[in-house]
């Protein structure tokens, strides 16, 4: 197993294994999966591993616009309600405290469907020089 895979395992899958709950320590598993939320297998990119973590805030009614991630990413809604839609109409709603494995190489749009600001923690499992997000090209005007 590569060092990157071990690191990612420790960050995402291992909390329940690495730390035993006690009176002073509460362990809450958030996510353990081999697939993104649309059912496709998670595949790590080639190259020098680079992990990035961002907190993204979206105003009530705001959207991310259509975009895709060329690398695996994992998110947790810290505050608010996020709705993610795919071009084929699939929709995933994530509430505060819930986590997901985001879709890879698939255009999607995220929307804050709540009445307060949305805060989303996203961790990208990328590689040096690979962009985290690619926006959909604007449609050509006739």
Describe the structure.
By secondary structure, this protein is mainly β. The protein has one domain: Jelly Rolls (Sandwich). 11% of the residues lie in helices and 35% in strands. It is built from two helices and nine strands. Strands 1-8-3-6 form a four-stranded antiparallel beta sheet, with no helix packed on it. It has a three-stranded antiparallel beta sheet with strand order 5-4-7, with no helix packed on it. The protein has a two-stranded antiparallel ribbon with strand order 2-9. The longest helix is centred in the N-terminal third of the chain and has 11 residues, at 3-13. It is globular and about 55 Å long.
Write the layout of secondary structure elements.
Blueprint lengths: L2 H11 L1 H4 L30 E10 L8 E2 L4 E7 L1 E6 L4 E5 L3 E3 L6 E5 L5 E10 L6 E2 L7
What can be said about the biggest beta sheet?
4 strands, antiparallel
SSE string: HHEEEEEEEEE
- With strands numbered from the N-terminus, the spatial order across the biggest sheet is 1-8-3-6
The CATH architecture would be: Sandwich
Cα radius of gyration in angstroms: 16 Å
- State the CATH topology: Jelly Rolls
* Distance from first to last alpha carbon: 51 Å
Q: Which overall shape is indicated by the principal axes computed on the Cα atoms?
A: globular
**Continuous helix count:** 2
List key phrases describing it.
142 residues; mainly beta; Jelly Rolls; 4-stranded antiparallel sheet; 3-stranded antiparallel sheet; 2 helices; 9 strands; 35% strand; disordered N terminus
């Amino acid at each position: 197993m590569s060092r990157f895979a071990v690191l990612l395992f420790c960050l995402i899958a291992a909390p329940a294994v690495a730390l035993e709950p006690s009176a002073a320590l509460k362990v809450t598993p958030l996510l353990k999966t081999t697939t993104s939320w649309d059912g496709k297998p998670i595949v790590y990119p080639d190259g020098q591993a680079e992990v990035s973590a961002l907190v993204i805030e979206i105003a009530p009614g705001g959207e991310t616009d259509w975009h895709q991630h060329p690398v695996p990413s994992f998110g947790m809604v810290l505050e608010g309600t996020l709705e993610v839609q795919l071009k084929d109409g699939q929709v995933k709603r994530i509430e505060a405290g819930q986590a997901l494995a985001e879709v890879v190489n698939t255009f999607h749009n995220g929307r804050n469907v709540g009445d307060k600001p949305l805060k989303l923690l996203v961790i990208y499992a990328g590689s040096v020089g690979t962009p985290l997000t690619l926006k959909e090209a604007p449609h050509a005007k006739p």
